[in-house]
Every structure is written in C-alpha cells, then in structure tokens.
Amino acid sequence: MGYDLTRRQFNRLVRAYQPSRYETFGAGDARFTIPMNHALKSRDRLHVALRSGLQRLPEGPQTIVDFGPFPGSLLRLLRGIQPTKTARLFGAGLMASPEFVQFMKQDADVEILTVNLDPAGQQFTSKGYQETVPLPDSSAQLVFALEIVEHLTSPFHLMTEAYRLLKPGGLVVITTPNVTRIGNIFKLLIGRSPNDRLAPPGYNDPNDEWRPHAREYAMHELAEMLRHVGFEIALSRFFLGEDTQDCQQTVRQSAIDWAKVPFYLVPHLRGSLLILGRKP
To answer: Looking at domain 7-24+52-278, what is its CATH homologous superfamily?
Structure first.
C-alpha cells in the first residue's frame, strides 16, 4: 500500500519532463536564469504534495482529481509515475479552454471539467458554469488542491466537493502559502502590508479566470475548516515552498532570502502549508 516518491526519483522525473506550451514561461523570460516551466518552478511543492498523497494511496484501480488543474503539470506528472500510469485522471476548475481540454485528453488521457469551485465569490455567475464536479459520490481515492484555496472567496465549497467525491479513507491534499511566514513578519516590521498578493478592493473581472489571492491562511484555520466539513486531519506540516531558486534577483532580494534562513528552524515561519484531510 502506498508509494514513496523520493526526492531523487522526483528530480529525475522533472529533468526528463517535457513541458507543454501551457507550462513554459519562454526562453526569453527575464525573470529566470534558465529556461523555466511550471513543473520546474514549483518543484518543491509538487514533490511534497505528490509524495504525501502517493504514500497513502491504496492499491487497486485509482481515480484522482486535481482541483484547479491549469496548466496541467500535476496531472501530466502523475501520468508518468508508475502507480498512477493507469489511473483515471480528472481536472476540475477554470481556465479550461477547448484547446487545453483537447491537449490534456490527447497528451495524458486526462479529462478536464470546467467547474466554478468558488460560487460564494459570484464573479462567474454570468458565465453559467456548473458548481459541482460532474463525477459520482465516493468515486475518487485522492483529490489535490494545490495553491488554490488562497484564490477563493471561501474554500468551503471546494472542501465539501472533495469530501463528496472521496471514498471512505480517501484523501484531499492541500498546499497554500502560509500567512505566518517570516517574509510577512518582515513586511510588518518595516511598516509594509503583507497583503500585497491579495486582490485589490473592488476587483471583479469575470473575464479574468486567474484570480489574485483572496486571503491566506494559518495551519489551524485550514484544519478547523476541514474538520467542519467532516474530514480527519491525516497530516499537517510546514515546508519552505521556495520557487525563487532560478530567479533573477537583485543583491537586496538575495540578502532578504538569506536573512530568512535562520527563521526556518521555527516551522510556522516557513513559507508554505501542507495539510491532508482523510474522509472517515
């Protein structure tokens, strides 16, 4: 039962990975020191999330759902990992253009479903998107929701949908920025707001299906919400979640990154949260 995706195995997988045009940032993107793609940029959180989910994956036929699947990196990586090569893979969320849907089906045998997982926000009411994932109750073993809850007005609908889809013993894997990270504390100490990633007041553009952050969370808040929906907490951990390893940085930016390092010894000052909810 379960599969341990080690860091060495994952690095080998990422090195051999062929990113799609939806994932590449472009060879001329001045933000990076090397040609960059989403899987490479997000490799820390992708490894943490995949390893924690796959370690607890039961044997037998698998159905796995990715909430917020664009640009497809997680699902394409899953298709290349031995235990999930034959799994039924679904993505549910926004930014599902016909071209992207067709590509994911042909490239990785993934079905992409357009679903508004944040009906409380009411930004997309005019588009008439379905708000429930068109899959049966208790049909999935694993649901991923990576770097999405911070974009939602309320994560409760997403968590409720995950609970409905999962079989007993199934898991939802969530990663999100940690609101208590040391970078936010530094900003407060110098008189800056830590809310610079948040949507500005009054922001509402239904044509922009990529949303800025609505808010960020501390670990205890996510745990309380998952328990409220009915989940048990199977795992919670703080991790670095750094994605600046290959970014162009000024001397000042590099100095700030180094200044953060000693504080990472305190778990709740790290940059990212991972939490797993298990359906009883």
So the answer is: Vaccinia Virus protein VP39 (3.40.50.150)
Taking CB atoms within 8 Å and a gap of at least 24, the contacts of 101-108 are: 103/20, 103/22, 103/72, 104/69, 104/72, 104/75, 104/76, 107/20, 107/76, 108/72, 108/75, 108/76, 108/79
Rounded-to-integer distance, Cα 254 and Cα 277, Å? 36
Reading phi first (left if > 0) and then psi (alpha if -120 to 50, else beta), residue 131 is in: alpha
| Dist. CA 34–CA 4, nearest whole Å | 29
In the chain, domain spans? 7-24+52-278
What are the pLDDT digits (tens) for 109-124?
999 999 999 999 888 8
- Cα–Cα distance for residue pair 138/145, rounded to 1 Å: 17
- What residue ranges of the chain have pLDDT lower than 70? 1, 27, 244-245
- What six digits make up the tokens of 273? 């949260």
Among 183, 133, 178, which residue's Cα sits nearest to residue 158?
133
- Local structure of residue 111 (DSSP, 8 states): E
16-34, pLDDT tens digit by residue? Answer: 999 999 999 876 777 777 7
Provide the Cα torsion 68, 70, 71, 77; round to 10°. Answer: 50
Distance CA 106, CA 118 (A): 28
What type of residue is 113? L
Q: What distance lies between CA 39 and its chain's CA centroid?
A: 12
